[in-house]
Amino acid sequence: MAKRTMMVVLFFLCLTQVIAQTTQKIKLDVRKASLSQVLLDLKETYGLQFAFDNDLLSQYSVSVNRSFQSENEALLYLLRNLPLDLEKSGEVFLIIPRKPNEPKASFTQISGQVLEAKTYEPLPYSYILINRRSIQSDQQGNFNYIASADSSYNLQISHLGYFIYDTIVNQSLNRRFFLTPRIESIKEVQIISNPIEKSTLIGDRAGRMKINHQIAPILPGHGDNSVFNLLRLMPGILAAGEQSNDLLIWGAYESHSKIQFDGFTVFGLKNFNDNISVVNPFMVKNIEVMKGGYEARYGGRVGGIVDIEGKDGTLLKPTFSFVINSTTVNSMLLVPLSKRSSIMGAYRQTYYQLYSPTAINLFEKEITTGKGVFWRLWTNRLEDREVVPDFVFRDANLKYSFKGDKGSRFALSLYAGGDQFSYDAGGQAGQVFFSRTEKEKNKQLGGSMQFSRHWSDNSITHFSLSYSAFEQKSFEQDTSNSVHKFIQDINQVINTDNAVDEVTLKAEHTLSFNDGHKLILGAGTENNHVKLLRNWNNKVAMDVNSNSSRVFVFGQDELPLGEMLDIKTGLRIVYAGDLNEVFFEPRISGSLTPYEGFKVNASWGLYNQFLSKTSVVDSSANMAYFWINADKNNISVLSAEHKVVGVSFNKDGLTVSAEAYFKTTDGLNRYFVGTKRIEEGYYSGDARAKGLDIFVKKEYKRHMAWISYTLSKTEEHFPFYLNDVYKLAPHHQKHELKFAGVFNYKSFYFSANYIYGSGFARFNFERNDDTSLNQPYKRLDTSLVYKFKPGKVRAEAGISILNVFNTNNIKYANIVGTTVDDISLVGIYADAVSFTPTLFFKIEL
Fold it and tell me: Which of 375, 522, 563, 589 is buried most, with the most CB atoms less than 10 Å from its CB?
C-alpha cells in the first residue's frame, strides 16, 4: 500500500513538472502601447515566437497590468475586442485579421509599392516572394499579385542594400511597404540577426545583373567615378585598358551598348582615366545591367543595356550633401516642396588640374619590302616625352517629383554636362622632328518626363518623354620636319564636328493575372538627328546630315509554370520610316529553379540598332569613332543574335554563377580614308563574340568579397582583308580576372580591388600578321573610409590609392600614329592610371 501511494505521488510530481515546463506565467504591465511593440517585448522577455503584420498591429493600442497563467491566456486577453484571431503553427503564434462572415473569395490580390523607410524613395525592381512565387516590382516600386485563395501568404520583399521585409498576409491588400537601408549613418545603432541583400544580384535571370550602388563609394576611386568603377568590376564588362568613352559589354563595340539615366540616353563625356563618370553618384538610386538576351521591353541596341534610375528626393526635411576630393567638388541639395512633391539638384566641377605630367611613349615602325626589313629610319630605342594635358569638367542635375494618390507619380529630370581636353606632344625620332596637337570638347544634354497611373483593376500605365543631345568637336594636327631634304615635310590638320540627338515617346501598360502571370504591352516612337562634318587639310572628307524616325510596338508575356519554371516570351516590331522597312525582334527566356537557391537560365533574341558609331581609319591607321544613322546607301542597320545560358547558386551569403554567351553582329561600318591598296569609302563587315563569365561572391556578417573571370574571343571580318578570314577585334581581351573585397570594422571600411587583363592585339590591314602590344594589364587599388557623426552632421573621410604598384599599363583606344614621312609612323600612346593617392571628405546635413 505504501509502495502504491509512493508511485501515485511520483506520478503527480512528474505531471506537475511537465505542466510547469509547458506553461509559464506571463506578467504584463503596459499603458497605451502599440500591440506590435507588446508582442516584441514578449518575444524578448519570454522567448515566444510570433508571425504578424507589423503595420496592422501597430494601429492598435493596449493597456494591461496583470499576470496570466499561460502564453495563450495572455495573448487571448490582448486580442479581446480586436478584429484579430490567434492561431498556432508549431511553436509560432500567428496573429491574423479576423475573417468577415461573407462568401470566400475565389482569389486574393496583394499589391502595393516598395519605398525606402527614411526618404519615401520608390525602390525600383524590388523582389517580392509570395509563397515561394517570385515577382518583381516596376521602376516605381509598384507590384501586383493575384493568387488563388488560401488561408495565409508569406510575403517577403527584398532590395539590394536593404533589410528584408517579412510578414504574413491572409487577405487582399493594397498598401505601401517600407524597407530600412542596410548602411546606417548613426554608429550607435546596430541591427543584427536579420538577412540583408548587400552588393550584387547575379544569376536570377539570363544575362542580367542588379548592383547595389550603396557600396560603390566604399570602393577605391575618387568618388566621382564610383558608379562606373563598380560596373567595371562586374563579369563581362571590360575593365582592362580603362576604356573611358563607353562600356564594352560581352564583346560589343563602342556605342553598341546603351547607358540610360532616368529614361534618357547618355551618349557619354570623355571621362579620362576613369576619374569622373558622366553619372553623378549622388543622384543614383538603382542600377540594372542587361549584358545580353534581354526582353522585348528594351530595344535600339545590339549590345548591352545599363539602366540607371535616379533618386526622387525627400518628402521629410531638407538635406545637403557635399564632397571634395583631389580634383573635384560635388554637392547635392534635396528640398521637400510639400507633403507630396520635392526638388533636388546636384553640381560637380573640377577645381584642380586633373593630370600631372604624363609619359608619352614613342615607338618606331619598320620599313619593309616584299623581301622583308631592309632599313630602319632610326634606332630600336623607345623614347619618352612628358606632356601636361589640360582638362576641365562640369555637370549639373535637377529633378522635380510629385507623388499623387494611389501610387501615381510625375517626375521631371534634367541634365547638362561638358568637358574639354587638350595636349601637345613633340619630339625627335632619328633625323625627324615631329609634333602632335589634340583638342576635344564634349557637351551632353538630357531630360525626361515620366508619369505613372494606377487603375482600379491594379493595372499600371507608364508614360515617358525623353530627350538627349550630344556634341563632340575635335581638332588634330600632325607636323613633321626633317633635316634631310629627301624627306618631305608633312602637315596634317583634321577638324571634326559630330552632333547627335534623340527624342523618344513611350507608353507601357502592365496587366496582372493569377499566380504571377503578367502581360506588358507598349508602343512608342523614336527619332535621331545626326550631323557629321570632318575636314582633312581644309578639304571636306565627310559631310552627313540625316534623320532616322522609327515607330515600335512590343508585347511581353511573363508566365510562371508551377513553382519551378518561369517563361518570358516577347516580340518587338520596329518600322523604320526612312528605310521603309519593318524589323521583327522575337525574344524568349526561361528560368528553372529545381530547388531553393539553384537556378538554370537561358535566353535567345534578335536585336537591331539604327543609330551607332562608325569607325574611321585614316592614312596613319588611326581609328576614330563618330555617331551616324543607318541609311539606304552606305550605313547598314546593325543586326545581332544573342544566345545565353547560365547556372547560379545563391544561399547563405554565397553566390556562384557561370554564364556562357554567343553573339553575332552584322552590318558593322568602317570608313577608310584610303591607302595604296584600299580604296577610300565605306565598308560593311560582321563580328562574332563568345565567352564565359564566372562569378563567385561571399558575404559574411558585414564583410564581402568576390572574384569574376571572363574568358572571351571577339573576331571581325571586312572585305578589304587580304584573306577571307576573321581577325581579332581591336577590343578583344582573351582573359580578364577581377577581385574586390570590403572589410568593415565598426566605422571603418577597408576595400581593395585588382584587375588583370591579358592584353590587346592590333594588326596591319595591309598585311596578314597580327601585331600584339604584348603587354598585359595589371592594377591594384586600395581604399580606407571612416564614417563618423560630429553633432548632427554625418561625415565621411577616406583615402584611395590607385595602381598601388605603379604598373605601366596601356590605355585602350589611345594609341595614335603620327606620320613623319611618306612611309613611316611614330606611335604615340598615353599611359593609363599610374600610382595615384587621392583623398576625399564628405558631409551631409
Answer: 589
